[in-house]
Please model this.
Amino acid sequence: MKSKFQPDENGYFGQYGGAFIPELLYPNVKELADNYIQIIESEAFQTEYKSLLKDYVGRPTPLYLAKRLSEKYGAHIYLKREDLNHTGAHKVNNTVGQILIAKKLGKTKIIAETGAGQHGVATATVCALMGLECTVFMGEKDIVRQAPNVARMKMLGAKVVPATSGSKTLKDATNEAIRYWIQNPATFYLIGSVVGPHPHPDMVARLQAVISEEMKWQLKEKTGKENPDTIIACVGGGSNAAGAFYHYMEDEAVELIAVEAAGLGVNSGESAATSQLGEVGIIHGSKTILMQDEYGQIQEPYSISAGLDYPGVGPLHAHLYETKRAKFMNATDKEALAAAYELTKIEGIIPALETAHALAVLPKIKFKKDQVVVINLSGRGDKDLEIFIKHLEE
Amino acid sequence: MKKLNTLLAQKENLLSIYFTCGYPELGDTTQVISALEKSGVDFIEVGLPYSDPLADGPTIQDSSQKALENGINLDIVFEQLMTIKETNKTPLVLMGYLNQMLKYGEEKFCQKVVDCGIETLIIPDLPMVEFENHYQALFDKYGLTNVFLITPNTSEERIRKIDTYTKSFIYMVASSSITGAKGEISEQQIAYFERITAMNLKSKCIIGFGISDKPTFTIACKHAQGAIIGSAFIKHIGANGIEKITDFIKPIIT
Model:
């Protein structure tokens, strides 16, 4: 049976996706599109990938029943602890997988874009592990607000190139990475989210799918059932949500909630809630929902969280939104900060600002008694301490 | 307006200039076109400023950003082009990114382009498969032709296919790069030009990306029907204003 949530041969999820790339990138993208599934499904890849995830990354990550949080919101709230991964977020699931694909394709130079710096760090980490040259493009504005991650990347041996065009954030870092890729076709573009031209969105989703794969057996152990009632994850480009939703997408009994960053408020003009503010458009080689003006100029998003500060969303998520398979909610900067302080205070876990957006919708949902909820705790908040400290007094 | 195809069939050493609409000043679009025409440029690539021009280097990006800050938009561009529809005799080719057409409305966009007397489009992020599946019929309906790009890494099979789809010219990207001057043309690039010549394509080729001055233009013309200069021209008008356009063009074509 053909799945509704797998891409077709041209990389479309419903009307979203595709590969809108200049001819200059065609050979690179084609090489990957022709090989990625075969590589990922090969026994050699699976053996090495699983072994690295276990012994290097520290998987499986725990599925933790957050008792005090559960009491407060009147549901059984489990946290999928992606924050406990090596490098502090779910990003490394993808970079470990892609670095193995790059090696298999004989690539020796790796480039990546990064927003919050988590993907940059995860890429620099696997490049150090494999002895490959690494260049990370990062918006000039993000370099300032995520300084600890910049230092980490440099220590790991990566070259960090500031993106100085446009809004100087994730969108522009991705533009610069793509421009570099055009000029250096022998490099492997290790993309950090379920965005970009086909096959990148599908490839990254498959590599993050380990999150929901583990959730299934962990829930079975803890609750007797593989399925939760609800899964909540934050969405910028959408890689952690894609991973948390992946093995549940076909099962409509499981409610999927994607939380976007509303910045100062959805309609404030300073927001990154793409599904609410966007329309069909093309960004970074993919047809998706895009924040743009009436002439198709891409708008500059805003969020306190560098990892959610993206004017598009992955094509899979655009499809989940349009088909109403996932419910899209959003949280403002303030709500995210409050949720981060709350989790820290009552569960002793400092979440990343991105992740805090997923937690921030808890007060907005009316839970049924005994509802089993999994929140994908996508990353830890060490990188955001400066922002947390700054707002602590407020 | 002269037909681009007549020009491609009858004249060699064609010089095309790319410029960004609404740059350096919002109202400069028509004056740049008329100055280019007076200077003897054969056809003109009219660039629609875009916020995220993936195939362009810093010079064209910056000019696009400036033009957008000047307040340029598609409606203004079409209004500007309409005012010179009767007077301008030099073929115009419209270059923009697919999202601009998508958001404007594909049919409405095509109609406006035709109304302005333009028949040829360059959309660098419109891949061949999307052209085949979604755009070929639309462009045919409006009598528009799409220019495909080929690069040193485009396979022979793909070039042959592009050749069959081409109704105006093939845009031969001189190197694996984004737009912008690179200085000299390498032996490796010449080998690539010669490889394409040896393929005996039915379509004429015009070389672009990295063509900036008389020497690079001359070499390009040896291997193709002509060449497009973009970034170097943008730099010139950025530094000298639009009054001295002839100073840039004359040394190249004489």
In short: The CA atoms of residues 26 and 34 of chain A lie 12 Å apart. The interface with chain B takes residues 10, 18-24, 26-27, 165-166, 171, 175, 178-179, 182-185, 279-285, 290, 292, 294-298 of chain A (CB under 8 Å). Chain A has 16 helices and 14 strands. The longest helix of chain A spans residues 26-41.
